[in-house]
Amino acid sequence: MDLKILEKETRRIAADIIERSAIKKDQIFVLGLSSSEVAGGLIGKNSNLEIGEVIVKTIMEEVAKSGVYLAVQGCEHINRALVVERAAAESKGLEVVNVLPTVHAGGSGQLAAFKFMTDPVEVEEVTADAGLDIGDTSIGMHVKRVQVPLIPLERELGGAHVTALASRPKLVGGARAQHSQDPIRKF
After folding, report:
1. How many CA atoms within 13 Å lie on the side-chain side of 19?
2. 12, exposed or middle or buried, with CB in 10 Å at 0-12, 13-18, 19+?
3. Of the four listed, 5, 27, 96, 182, which is most buried by Cβ atoms within 10 Å?
4. At a CB cut-off of 8 Å and minimum separation 6, what does 145 contact?
5. DSSP 38-54
6. pLDDT, tens digit (0-9, with 9 covering 90-100), for 128-184
7. Could you give the CA distance from residue 102 to residue 91 in angstroms, rounded to a whole number?
8. Residues pairing with 160 in the sheet
């Protein structure tokens, strides 16, 4: 796998989803990543540290441009805990948990987050405002309601299926209620 092409495609997908999700400064963007799927294998069967590092570092750079916090979801072997910067955990009141990711418990994305973040910690859960799912890792549990699916520019990254979610405020009221324009779908 050509890592330069992977970086370029990751950057393009991430920048597009960050822009279209209407995520704002100090909000949380969650990343679910199966490097096994990106490499063309089955989720959880062949984690690839280089792929994890390229994808996480690239997405960290893209969210930093908007002042958005990144949360990197781990696999089911650590109950889908997430790596965030300690500053994000403190500012959002997130509960820090004690687990250190490994290649087969947390995955390559979490190991990359620990490598590239300034002061990484694991938290049990977040309520993110948007996110990117690379390899069908099921990030929906960490994105607040109402979830709005976004179709990425590229539906595959390497061999992995790519999906994305944004969130918008709930529409409330009866027949006479009016609502502001949807910042995501802009219709």
Report:
1. 8
2. middle
3. 27
4. 167, 170
5. HTTS-TTTS--HHHHHH
6. 999 999 999 999 999 999 999 999 999 999 999 999 999 998 888 887 888 887 777
7. 27
8. 157
Q: How many CA atoms lie within 13 A of 73 on its CB side?
A: 29
Burial of 172 (0-12, 13-18, 19+ CB in 10 A): exposed
Task: Answer yes or no: is 173 within a domain.
Answer: no
Q: How far apart are CA 55 and CA 37, in angstroms?
A: 13
Q: Is the pLDDT of residue 187 over 60?
A: no
Q: Which residues contact 177 (CB under 8 A, 6 or more apart)?
A: 171
CATH code of the domain containing 99? 3.40.50.10360
Structural domain span for residue 113: 3-167
Pull the structure tokens for residue 79: 């109950």
Report how many domains make up the chain: 1
DSSP character at residue 94: P
Angle at 155 between CA 149 and CA 159, to 5 degrees: 130
pLDDT tens track for 66-78: 999 999 999 989 9
